[in-house]
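Figure 3 (text version): structure tokens given as input.
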């Protein structure tokens, strides 16, 4: 894969992260990616650095997506007294 192609994929993955964060109002933890200190805009970095950054960012996004979310429980005003009575 050419460096230009890696830069393009890196930018796409970076934009995917921003899209997911914007649509879900939750930040994706990217400590490993941030520690590499490289972004898609650092075109002077070598091909290997961009490949490592791309794969690291992809791994952190996938880990965030697969993280189990807390279930959403919706209670209606009619069911709350029944639930409280069942607990007591």
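Below: residues designed for each position.
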């Amino acid at each position: 894969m050419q460096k230009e192609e890696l830069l393009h994929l890196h930018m796409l993955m970076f934009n995917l992260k921003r899209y997911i964060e914007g649509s879900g109002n939750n930040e994706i933890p990217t400590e490993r990616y941030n520690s590499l200190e490289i972004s898609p805009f650092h075109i002077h970095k070598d091909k290997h650095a961009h490949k490592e950054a791309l794969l690291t960012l992809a791994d952190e996004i996938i880990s965030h997506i697969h993280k189990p979310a807390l279930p959403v429980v919706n209670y209606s005003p009619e069911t709350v007294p029944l639930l409280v009575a069942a607990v007591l």
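Helices lie at 3-24, 31-35, 47-66, 79-87.
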